[in-house]
Amino acid sequence: MKILVTGGAGYIGSHTCIALLNAGFTPIVFDNLSNSSTIALDRVTEITGKKITFIKGDVRDAEALDKVFNQHDIYAVIHFAGLKAVGESVEKPILYYDNNVSGSINLFSAMERNKITRVIFSSSATVYGDPATVPITEDFPTSTTNPYGGSKLIIEEVLRNIYTAHPEWNIALLRYFNPVGAHESGLIGEDPSDIPNNLMPYIAGVAVGKLKQLSVFGGDYDTIDGTGVRDYIHVVDLAKGHVKALQAFENKSVDNLYTVNLGTGKGYSVLEMVEAFKKASGKDIAYTITARRAGDIACCYADPSYAKHLIGWEANKGLQAMCDDTWKWQSNNPNGYKEVSNN
Ligand code: NAD
Ligand code: UD1
After folding, report:
1. Which atom of ligand 2 is nearest to the CA of 300?
2. Residue 303 is part of which domain span?
3. 202 and 211 in contact (C-beta within 8 Å)?
4. How many structural domains are present in the chain?
5. What is the Å distance from ligand 1's center to 100 Cα?
6. Backbone angles phi, psi at 329, to 5 degrees
7. Atom nearest to 294 CA in ligand 2
8. Where are the beta strands (DSSP E) in 101-234?
9. Residue 221: nearest ligand to its CA?
10. pLDDT tens string for the chain (343 positions)?
11. 200/232 Cα distance (integer angstroms)
């Protein structure tokens, strides 16, 4: 069964291609490579022994999408394509709404034209804003403080409206918590194009000697040690969630529209992450506690029980594997997918 994977060359997409291939699906990757490299897909082939069909294209290009849907008998779409840097979204809101929202609407209209009615969408825990309590269940109120989060909320709403008009569509809204880690081979992983915004790639950059020290954003939160707490989830577990979501469509075991959290249910503080990474890498991680980052919240972790109940998915990999695998990827590929410069 062919699955169109938009954004499939990216961090979560490339890991999901492996999970799809292992489960007997055929991913067709459609990506404009704005934040990724085809080397990731070559590595997926190295890991699985299977070649992947890759189409370079933009989800805002209706003709390109029609061509893919005409050429391939697509069972479902997994829609990862999007921009994801919160800070950049505040500076470039039009770019974010155009790429993420207009791109998604263009994709859904191409699906409608071509009678493709199954879609899995990458949403985010960011849609819960600053939750009143933890753990977070799917019925918590949603809100947003930045255009990135705004784009996720709008796309979720568009999909709910599509379902109202076309209840025969199968739509899964997957709300990811904090994806980290890498494939256990160390061949693929997260490859930020610039200085990382997110914690795990930043810590890994310090451990490998590319970055000097970590700034810990805030030491005065009401948490176990004053630093922010998040639900980190291994990207390989997250990738498998997409296969479970597809299989739930196939088995008709779910409502035609559903929303689930993909998290572990466990929160770790920034300092706990630093300690765990030190242990995994054997390297010292220099850090200094600085002011809080604007827009950050104290604590965020999922109640993942609905995903287990509904689609039979739960995370299996713990913090040690998240750090070990990130370290393997980072130490084997200090420059990510970029070729090592001789200068
Ligand atoms: P990523 O940047 O590694 O992957 C996104 C991919 O989409 C990239 O390969 C990029 O080139 C491609 N892309 C972007 N705009 C495109 C367009 N207009 N047309 C075609 N391709 C386009 O990011 P990721 O971490 O793999 O995230 C995948 C999805 O999951 C995104 O939608 C992101 O918002 C969402 N998400 C990510 C996280 C996270 O922390 N990584 C958390 C929650 C949700
Ligand atoms: C961020 C985004 C969120 C997005 C998620 C996944 C913000 C405000 N939120 O979430 O919308 O869905 O990424 O892409 O950007 N930290 C440091 N030092 C650093 C980096 C992070 O102390 O250099 C801390 C943060 O304050 C936080 C924790 O580490 O407590 C995790 O941060 P990060 O990895 O950026 O993820 P989120 O902020 O949870």
Report:
1. 39
2. 2-340
3. yes
4. 1
5. 9
6. -60, -50
7. 8
8. 118-124, 170-176, 178-180, 214-217, 229-230, 232-234
9. 2
10. 999 999 999 999 999 999 999 999 999 999 999 999 999 999 999 999 999 999 999 999 999 999 999 999 999 999 999 999 999 999 999 999 999 999 999 999 999 999 999 999 999 999 999 999 999 999 999 999 899 999 999 999 999 999 999 999 999 999 999 999 999 999 999 999 889 999 999 999 999 999 999 999 999 999 999 999 999 999 999 999 999 999 999 998 889 999 999 999 999 999 999 999 999 999 999 999 999 999 999 999 999 999 999 999 999 999 999 999 999 999 999 999 986 444 3
11. 9
Q: Yes or no: say if 327 and 180 are a contact pair by the CB < 8 Å rule.
A: no
Phi-psi region of 76 (alpha: psi -120 to 50; beta: other; left: phi over 0): beta
Q: Which of 292, 293, 298 is nearest to 131 (CA)?
A: 298
Give the ligand whose atoms come closest to the C-alpha of residue 4.
Answer: 1
Residue nearest (by alpha carbon) to ligand 2 atom 13: 198
Ligand 2, atom 35: closest residue by C-alpha: 198
Q: What is the CATH classification number for the domain harbouring 38?
A: 3.40.50.720
What the block records as the tokens of 6 is: 């938009």
Q: Is 232 a catalytic residue?
A: no
> Residue with the nearest Cα to atom 17 of ligand 1?
58
Tokens of 286: 């220099």
**C-beta 242 within 6 A of ligand 1:** no
Model's pTM, two decimal places?
A: 0.98
